[in-house]
Design goal:
The complex is a heterodimer. Chain A has five helices and six strands. Chain A is of the alpha+beta class. Chain A folds into two domains: about 1-70, 2-Layer Sandwich (VC0802-like), CATH 3.30.2130; about 70-140, 2-Layer Sandwich (VC0802-like). Chain A has a six-stranded antiparallel beta sheet. The two termini of chain A are about 15 Å apart. Chain B is an alpha/beta fold. In chain B, helix 8 runs parallel beside helix 10 (about 215-225) and helix 11 packs antiparallel against helix 12. The chains are: A alpha+beta, B alpha/beta. At the A-B interface, strand 1, strand 3 and strand 4 of A face helix 12 and strand 20 of B. The structure holds zinc ion. The site of zinc ion has 6 residues of chain B, from loops.
Chain lengths: ~140, ~425
Amino acid sequence: MTINQISIFLENKCGKLSKVLSILSDAHIGIIAATVADTSEYGILRLIVTNPEKAYALFKENNVTVSKTEVLAIATDRCAGSFASVLGCFTEAGISVEYMYCFSLDGKSILILRTNDPVQAYEVVKKHKLEYISTDKLNNI
Amino acid sequence: MTYWQAEVETMSRADLEKLQLEYLKKTIRIATNSPFYNKIFKEHHITSDSICSLDDLKKIPFTTKEDLRNNYPFGMAAIPIQQCVRLHSSSGTTGNPTVVLHSAKDLNEWANQVARCMYMVGLRDTDIFQNTSGYGMFTGGLGFQYGAEKLGALTVPAAAGNTKRQLKFITDFGTTCLHIIPSYATRLAEVMRESGIDPRRDTKLHTVCIGAEPHSEEQRLRIEELLGVKAYNCFGMSEMNGPGVAFECKEQNGMHIWEDYVIVEIIDPVTLEHVPEGEVGELVLTTINREAMPLLRYRTRDLTRIISGDCPCGRTHKRIDRFKGRSDDMIILKGVNLFPIQIETVLMKFKELGNNYLITIDQDEMQIEVELSDLFTDDYSVLQRLTKEITRQLKDELLLTPKLKLVGRGSLPVQEGKAVRVKDLRKF
Ligand SMILES: [Zn+2]
């Protein structure tokens, strides 16, 4: 049910981000969503890509500081209330969200969620019959 | 327990000291032939007869690196140059280089010292020994070469650099032991990993001898873990031949210094008096089994201490502790004396950090850049906590707060030779 997000450590150096992006484009791996958490010292680039396994291996090979993180991808309607109701399901179960971001896909908003408790989060998704995006679906984009 | 030379390695302290006195008197007779010592002996009325106990060594003035430079190239020779068969020279960044001369007998004794060390850590004539030291003038090359050959091991003079080629030798020849600089050992392990080579599965490596640059216990443990080997600390310096002066035994608790070859003193570098046994001071060595170029009370500039007590291995020769740094490497910042090894000791405790770091000193600020390891986590709060914890431990160790910067893998210059860890941008 979870998908693999690729996280990359970026020290604030020019050229580092473009190196990362060109590794992906050279391998014809598509970026579905990207977000940067930035501080004055360094940034963490989080990526949802079409082929996370291959991307991860390529980054390792190219000596990029990288990790894989399992995140949930929940499909919601574009109305404001649907975000709130999805988040509500998790908070109600006592799960805290470490970070989230979203992107559009096929007329839907996809919410990427990293929680502190993946096992419980799985139960929440089942209980509320939330629509989630699987790795297979992602690979077929 | 087996020894390379059981009789001398396990000799009682009383007998060993008797032997030292005999060798010292002989060394003074030989040294009288060197222009440098001849002059000193005359000035201080020293003859082999005036040295009646090891304590009388104090009558002899210290010899320094400066003396070696000033007497470049042959002013320290105690035998005719025609009778010397080898010369090693190390270039200095300032002033003249230094020269060490060897007779055939000296080379044979040197090889014996190295062979004794290698035997001590369990190496035998059945081992395949790959030496990744630079050859040529650098004594870690030929020094280990002749020692390993004396031991009877199949010796591969791979020399420094070219990591892919080193790896090919290790796998093709079934290398069981390496002599390697610590920073290069971790680099080699990284390249192995990148090439899909598992040292435990794909190589026969069981032992590495590490030396030539200061390293911490944590770095040793990391090398052992990364390469699946036992790593033994070795100490050598070109003025004392090179490798083989002192070496760890299997206890890995201090390096036995061969006292049938040198007399050991530890002095306070300021007062020049002996420090109480067990306290840190500058290592001073006197060669007592060298004929081409004896050195008396040579100030090594290395800071260490004697480890008291008997070693369970049965060897009676004193043990010196891991080096606390060189008086030359000392960084003075805001009036605090620091050694890079202190910083490394802290950094190596963290699994989240890689092996590469760089210390930059600018005005009265210290910045430490350190690469993250494979265990990088994308959780920002974890990284923040990590930064805080490393900084806190560094502050405890250094008594000042450095600016810590985490950087990605491969951001710092790759260390192929001797690591350059400190950049001092201050103008004095
Ligand atoms: Zn021992």
